[in-house]
Specification:
The chain has 423 residues and is of the alpha/beta class. It has 17 helices and 13 strands. Helix 3 packs parallel to helix 4 and helix 11 runs parallel beside helix 12.
Length: 423
């Protein structure tokens, strides 16, 4: 596992850069900094092995801020710079500061991939284990994403983990305003995610243990804030910081959400190992799922990590045909949850997971199988068709060329939206 902090002020390059990094197995982006002045805070808050500094379009200005920070951490952090600028003084300044690698654009994408892979292999023996982040995103309201998220977390907590009797699992409510994760598990939270967000530095394990609710199933529950005013104050940077700390503490972190494609959502998708999109065979859900998948691709996320969960499936309910939905979304429905409304709603009303309320129900068995699939012996997420081919959001092989080509060429990419600002 290689955790990367990106410094990039060029919005046009953000999607390409993100796509390249997330195409490398084991790489997680823990922060994207689009204001160099906030780099010091990011380095203090987010644990990482690699700092990737995209110096363009103002190499001298960015290096002036970054150089002393790189020098302070040259023994513990590998810094990689990339730029079009061939100025020898810039290179000398970077190397003196402790920048390990310097890449001049255009360069082949394989160069950075090989470098990150090598760093991952070097760090493997002594690196601290990092958990897997599994966001559960509802394609629209009412599709049962919270039911899937809470019960999936419970099932993962029943599985064995390396060096432990059971996997350590947290479930996090990212619907800061109207989330229901704690209620679904009848967890009475004294503290919430807001308390962790108030910590300006890296969050210590002792603080996490005090804030979470320890459910009898073994799952640790991190509830949404108590009031709407607290919810409105939580930033994308704080969300990313909490998740980064949880991933150092747990084997699995299941998050219910995100509910909007904003800066916090981009923080989640950067660190995620797989994206579970929950839908029903209904037109609004399928349409929203298609929009979400398109947006993920447009922003450089690896679409091979998308997994579709069809909830409340009933062949006699007059829903859309499964084959038509799969053709529309250009990917299979990876897991199909049977219709079991009476059992599911009763479990919610008493605040109990299916594993204890109805352990032999069809829905519980289906979620149990999904947990086993996600925790299989091969932790790498393969493509929906079982392959490993990387594609960008437009369905074309490879990456857009703008990141690796000079600005004055015709290969420049269309302007993408600004990277999710964490700091």
């Amino acid at each position: 596992m290689v955790r990367v902090i990106i410094v990039n002020t060029d919005a046009e390059a953000s999607a390409d850069l993100r796509a390249l990094l997330l195409s490398v197995p084991g790489v997680k982006i823990v922060a994207e900094v689009d204001e160099p002045a906030m780099l010091a805070q990011a380095l203090q808050q987010f644990p990482a092995e690699v700092l990737l500094v995209h110096l363009d379009p103002t190499p001298a200005a960015i290096m002036e801020i970054a150089a002393p920070l790189i020098a302070e951490r040259k023994d513990s952090l590998v810094t990689i710079g990339m730029t079009e600028d061939r100025d020898a003084e810039l290179v000398i300044q970077a190397m003196r500061a402790g920048m390990r690698e310097f890449l001049w654009k255009p360069f082949p994408p394989e160069r950075l991939t090989e470098l990150l892979t090598k760093l991952g292999q070097q760090a493997a023996s002594g690196a601290r284990r990092v958990g897997r982040l599994v966001p559960v995103v509802g394609a629209c309201g009412g599709v049962g994403a919270t039911t899937i998220a809470t019960n999936l977390a419970v099932e993962l907590a029943q599985l064995p983990a390396a060096g432990a009797e059971r996997a350590r699992v947290a479930v996090v409510d990212l619907d800061f305003r109207f989330g229901q994760v704690a209620m679904f598990l009848d967890a009475q939270a004294t503290y919430t995610i807001a308390e962790l967000c108030d910590s300006p530095e890296h969050i210590e394990p002792q603080m996490i243990e005090r804030v979470v609710v320890k459910h009898p199933s073994g799952v640790h529950v991190l509830a949404h804030p108590d009031d709407l005013e607290q919810a409105g104050r939580i930033s994308a940077a704080q969300t990313a910081g909490v998740l980064a700390a949880l991933l150092e503490h747990y084997d699995y972190v299941v998050v219910d959400g995100p509910v909007r494609f904003d800066g916090s959502a981009r923080a989640v998708f950067d660190m995620a190992d797989v994206y579970l999109v929950v839908l029903q065979l209904l037109v609004p859900a399928v349409r929203n799922a298609d929009r979400l998948i398109h947006e993920l691709g447009r922003n450089g996320y690896n679409l091979e990590q998308v997994r579709l969960v069809c909830n409340r499936f009933n062949r006699d309910s007059g829903f859309l045909e499964q084959a038509d939905v799969e053709a529309t979304l250009r990917r299979p429905l990876n897991w199909i949850m049977p219709e079991d409304w009476k059992i599911a709603s009763s479990a919610v009303n008493v605040g109990a997971p299916l594993a204890t309320y109805a352990p032999k129900s069809k829905l519980r068995i289906a979620i149990q199988q999904m947990a086993a699939d996600l925790a299989g012996p091969d932790k790498a997420v393969t493509g929906p068709d079982g392959g490993s081919e990387k594609r960008n959001g437009d369905g074309r092989k490879g990456l857009l060329s703008s990141l690796f080509a000079p600005r004055n060429t015709s290969a420049a990419a269309p302007r993408a939206g600004s990277a999710g600002r964490r700091e």
